[in-house]
């Protein structure tokens, strides 16, 4: 009895795995279609000054406007695209779209709204052509290059021998800013902070989330802010959700705030209306 049970279970699992493989292939095919048919959109989440009122930066966050399934978040398709090389095509699309939008805002307002773009390490080619693509795209739009920020996680930078190091140097040498995303949860060495010209540290939401209940979270956030100010690196607190967290961050003199307490990611049109149009009326 137990033997047949075991076999059944085995068959059951292999059936599931086969189904998952088919499902995966189907999604990959759909991502190709999505790229061809313009189903991806960029949402923008404003990043606020410490007062929680002024906005001087935004993070571009990809969404998939699926014809049947509606709006799909990046966690549901980016990991799969990373495994299959499609992340390069998605990354190229994101770069062009984000630079296009940033340029439009720049020409509307005459002011720089810094726009950051998430880059997965798997979209960096060994030859570093992607760095030239970034510089070229900014130049083509006549956009000051320090308008654009590339967000990478610590893990991307952990290997000093990797060609990515050289490429990050070339990026910052050409004026494009570098932000470390999800800071504090990745690789534990801080050596890359000295090696590279980092502009922004984004403190991971998990630290911000626990500040109100956990003294050690406050201590960590304080230490990060102190270190960053000595290194002349800006600090963004990610995932600020409560006024209590906001108050603590004000006491700690954090530079910038991002989170649902202030605003969720929104379509480009809404961002323009709320944060760019008011700037244009000030100018005229
Ligand atoms: P991330 O770069 O750390 O982005 C922050 C995520 O936290 C976003 O989720 C944002 O909507 C969410 N968030 C912001 N404020 C709050 C808050 O107060 N509370 C909570 N609970 N969440 C908040 P989203 O848009 O689902 O993106 C998830 C991740 O997908 C991003 O994490 C990033 O790693 C990746 N991603 C997004 N867009 C792109 C892209 O264009 N390219 C690549 N390679 N990855 C992307
Ligand atoms: Mg990010
Ligand atoms: Mg710089
Ligand atoms: Mg993050």
UniProtKB/TrEMBL annotation:
Superkingdom to which the source organism belongs: Bacteria
Location of the EAL domain: 24-279
Coiled coil: none
Protein name: Diguanylate cyclase/phosphodiesterase
Gene source species: Shewanella saliphila
Residue range from the parent sequence: 397 to 680 of 680
